Give the backbone structure.
Amino acid sequence: MGEKEEIRVAVGNLPPEITEEDLQEEFEHLGYDLTIHLERSGSSDRVTAVIMFEGMTRITAEKLADQLDGMPYQDRTLRAYVPLFLA
């Protein structure tokens, strides 16, 4: 417990025009190496980002997801969580 690993945070309800570069700028201040993958499902209006943080603990990721969940972002309300399993 508390072990650092590669942890993922899913952030949904993002605006359709969002880019990986936009999210990189939003999260780089946290000080972790990160990889971002955008998933656009159905219509282009449904955008979810899966952000992998290298070296972050699960506890820290859950706190980050709690802070992001419900946060307003470009006229939307973000949804964020740490998936239990993500292939």
Summary: The mean pLDDT is 89. The chain has two helices and six strands. Residues 72 and 78 are 6 Å apart (CA to CA). Strands lie at 4-14, 33-41, 46-57, 72-73, 76-77, 79-81.
